[in-house]
């Protein structure tokens, strides 16, 4: 890692890995381990800086969704992206969960809520975040982390080897297959019938999406209504990364999207969607959000 970042306090960052999740046997999983570890991560990021904390928390194959960058997969790519931000060593990001959920077997956890970013000596800028966590060793590692709506006041600098990286669409196979299939069906309905109808159809009864800082759309009707602005907008997206709990009841997809408003330039974005299998077996999303990415080549 380049010496652009201050060395994190060893005690604080080391503590991120000491809170073990209690994986379920006959008992329901205990969310307190994940909640405590996430709290330590947010505190370390606010105190010691976002870059070293993220790199200490990210799984080897984890995805970072940073505004203005392509989907970054793996700790090595994340290190190069963060190293290219010349002022990122002074960036401190804190976050506070509004929701936390564990898979029934404790093999995947998800959180989402409010984030705040500030550079040394500057006022905090508020936004949101979504995170997916996987137990590794004695603690939890981030397998997907999206920072949404947080302005860093400087343009994102892309390393030459990342550029406008595009990833191939996923096929609905493997343990995450049902969640990939749901994402693809979600995208088809949005392309055919509009985003409002698609989000209404695929939202879980208790789903939430962000309506602004501290504001949430709750439930399918509110989520669909928020997107029903009467504009002729074409939505296209596809998943490029996915994960699932071993129990198959909780999963996530990361993907690339294009939003094309009629008479306006295309908007290129990326997203993180959290999915849960409902009691009847259908797959519906719990929360969804994203940020900008470079335009397609």
Describe the 3D structure.
The chain has 297 residues and is α+β, with helices and mostly antiparallel strands. It is built from 7 helices and 12 strands. It has helices spanning 10-14, 32-48, 50-57, 75-84, 177-193, 195-202, 219-227, and strands at 58-65, 72-73, 91-102, 109-119, 125-136, 139-148, 203-212, 215-218, 233-244, 250-261, 267-277, 283-292. The strands form 2 sheets. The chain has a 6-stranded mixed beta sheet with strand order 2-1-6-5-4-3. A 6-stranded mixed beta sheet has the order 8-7-12-11-10-9. The longest helix is centred in the N-terminal third of the chain and has 17 residues, at 32-48.
Features:
297 residues; Nuclear Transport Factor 2, Chain: A; six-stranded mixed β-sheet; disordered N terminus
| Number of extended strands | 12
Q: Return the CATH class of the largest domain.
A: Alpha Beta
Residue share in β-strands: 35-45%
Total number of helical segments?
Answer: 7
Order of helices and strands: HHHEEHEEEEHHEEHEEEE
The structural class is alpha+beta
Q: Which fold does the CATH topology of the largest domain refer to?
A: Nuclear Transport Factor 2, Chain: A
Distance between the termini: 29 Å
Mean pLDDT: 83
- The level of helicity is 10-25%
What's the arrangement of strands in the largest beta sheet? 2-1-6-5-4-3
Low-confidence stretches: 1-26
Query: Do you know the CATH architecture of the largest domain?
Result: Roll
Largest beta-sheet details:
6 strands, mixed
Which outline best applies? globular
> What's the gyration radius in Å?
18 Å
**Into how many domains do the coordinates divide?**
2
